[in-house]
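Running this now, will post back.
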Amino acid sequence: MLLWVLRILFLALTTLGGYAVSQVRPELIEGGVWGAIMGFGFGGLMVAIDEMVKGFSLRAFSAATFGLALGTIVALLIDKSGLFVYVEEAPVRWLIRLCLFLSFGYIGMILAMRSNKEDFYLIIPFVRFAPQNKPENLLVLDTSVIIDGRVADLIEGNFVEGIIVIPRFVLKELQMIADSNDAIRRARGRRGLETLSRIQRNTRNEVKVHEAEISEETEVDSKLVRLARALDAKLFTNDYNLGKVAELQSVRYVNINELAKSMRPTTLPGDCFNLKIVREGKDKGQGVGYLNDGTMVVVNQANTLIGQQVEVQVQSLVRTGAGVIIFAEIKTAAAA
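Update: finished.
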């Protein structure tokens, strides 16, 4: 709404400006009505251009300006090289110069807008467009870790410090999942959007939406790794394969699942705890229960205590590919 107020004010000023020019310089514009119409037309043209470039970011504008300047310098060098010294007709020479500057200016702009920050580092190797006295701790979140939601708990618990970076292409992927016809995917997408809302409400960590669209890569995972490497950021994910790809490309990453495994309480033989028996075990007389973190506990002589709370004592632990299985004995029975 404020934008349209500014646009209307701008149109009013240009209309008045056109009318004023017609009064001060009548030889340029005859009549106040024509002056007002021309001023309004100029303002309308500017508003139309503003509407057409509304998706044009400051980074794209600065890149286009840099590319235009570079292309103009190349065209100027070619023009001054004496390559067209034998063109004697002034109109033909003027046309050649016009095509030369327009062509190289356009090519320079397109190349600069398609380039990323790493390409500028190659051109200016010792310049970094970031303050050196206070290095930023950037944390890039991928789709899986946003949908999981535990990263929001870590941020709210002040276990994660830094600037949270949400790439625009991750937001688009979340929106596509939330709009899916499949009920399960739709629920996962909406959970991810709710997680982002929780993260944004947290005041301790700044949240930024990164507008970079890496056109050279088609897969979201490849875009994430490339963006994290370009920003020198840490990638948060739940995807094991994405983490390994990031590691191969020297990108720092945190796998929330691995973090959760490392934070599980250590259980040792001789430890006692209360456990609810939920089903029978595979062998005769065994009952099975689960700890809060999902670890399976096999209790001997507990098949008759299904649905009851018992105190058990750990006898041994067996590590498998899926995790740890605890074998225990009943110590005392508690009230159900």
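The chain has three domains: 2-118, 138-262, 272-333. More later if anyone needs it.
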